[in-house]
Write the structure tokens for this entry.
Amino acid sequence: MNVGNGGRLLTSKQTARLLGVSEASVKRWADSGSLVSEKTAGGHRRFRPEDIALFQRDSKLGGERRAAVVVQLRERRTAVSPATTENVVSLEALFETLITGRVEEALSLFVNAYLHGHNLASIFDGALAKAMRRVGELWYEGKLSIAQEHIATRTVLSTLHRLRGLIETPEENGLLAICCSVEADFHELPVQCTQMLLESTGWRVLNLGPNTPFFSLSEVTMQNAPRLVCVSSTVLTNLDRAVREYKEFNDAAHRRGTTVVVGGAGFSDNTIRERFPADLHADSFQQLLEFAATFTAQHQN
């Protein structure tokens, strides 16, 4: 079953850590049937992440216990290098779950990495980025069909949605962020990851989704006065027009006191970055996480 090394079921100890309770409580709930469990051939209890999430939602565990485990997990996560998620999440296993649409198994892999001390940035920059890069490369080479590429993308988005429900977030810090991708860029995943990352540090986030024109972003920024706007780009089309409209947005944002962060492959080239100036050109989710944490410390009310 290989639970401790990226398997899809969790032990009683891992479940207790996730819920912020004692292992004895987990075993008592399993024995009573309140928390669904399975047993190995040797009689050991094993738990599915989705069952833990349902139990956590329905039982409404006390806030103090939940807060305590959040602090514990946060302290453990910050010490982990983003380059080491493959030690917990098998890239091959994750790739297979994504192209075959197995959301429950993908969720288990991510939860297991989280329980081993990896923060969201570590997971996004590590195994997830590499698995999706492999999907893209194989699709480009004609070794994966369009359908398989779409299944992988939808599986990731569904998995992240469920992971978002599992991970306890701190109280909102009073700061608002907006995130989106540029016009003609229909990639949802970077925007979803950005939202989850910021929410995990206490930000309230308005997610405009993919394919957002800069003039629309300007309007929303002026209306809502966010402290931070994060713009993702996998591809940039009609570059000269995009530069003009971005300048108008960036000028308006700074007049409003809004900090602008851009990231993604579309903004990776230094020549492009010169034409799209920003407060931060993020090269990774870890860099965005550190920037957001520093910003929060400096500007939180």
